[in-house]
Amino acid sequence: MPQPMAGDPVQMAGPQALERFTIERGVAVVPVRGVLTANSMTLERWMGWATYQGLTETCAELASDEAVAAIVLEFDTPGGMVLGCAGAAAAIAELGQIKPVHALVHPLAASAGYWLASQAREITVAPGASLGSIGAGVMTGAYVQPGQGSGLQLFEFTSPHARAKWPDPSTEEGRTEILRSLGEAEARFHVAAAAGRGTTPEDLRSRASVTEDVRDGGALFDGAEAVKRALADREESRMAFYTRILGAYTPAPLKTAGRRPRSRGRTINPS
């Protein structure tokens, strides 16, 4: 069976060779692993991490590949950048209009990873895996005066009409701008994830909250809890998942003696 696994090296014959997916018995397996970025070819080629551009290109390729009956997105990611995520999620949704797309969380689909997974027709969570962290966050800082910590004072300037370019989190105005930007990103996330899961953004926020207050979202959930909250569809081992998916989409054996169904990529045992 195809195996995109966390920790496996990228299959390459040099820095130019890259395998974004494998095809086995009519099912394409696309690993979605690592910290997700817009288009970092360095991280994709040398670390094996997915990029939004790579996923978008892969979706287009698989949509037109007659050898592919269905697609599995196998997730091993803590999330990543907001920039580019909406486009990749849209590409997955568009692919799902042409061919069935299944998501397997093994072992993590958090934040932007869940944004992508939510566009599949079904989300399966492997035992011990987690998903969620539905929301947006940013890490920033403010420089301090000498003698107040680092002892370093820096000055930054922006053009006359770009005050929001580098908001200062030490000021009320800066915090307001940061929260505004996060709110916009979260709203896009909620709309896309809710559409993928067949619900409303309001219902999604309720499902994702750990209390009755919808502001208490952003948590990670294990498989059983994710299914209970309707954020995923089932909890299933990786072996059982691929047995089910390959059984559903493998084409009928060819009657010509000695011929085998088309297969590309690595074939290894599930774990």
TrEMBL record:
Signal peptide: none
Gene3D superfamilies: 2-enoyl-CoA Hydratase, Chain A, domain 1
Positions of the UniProt region annotated as Disordered: 252-271
Domain Peptidase S49 per the UniProt entry, residue ranges: 96-237
Pfam families in the cross-refs: Peptidase_S49
GO BP terms: proteolysis
InterPro entries given in the database record: ClpP/crotonase-like_dom_sf, Peptidase_S49, Protein_C
Annotated GO MF terms: peptidase activity
Transmembrane segments: none
Family of the protein in this entry: Belongs to the peptidase S49 family.
Identification of the protein by name: S49 family peptidase
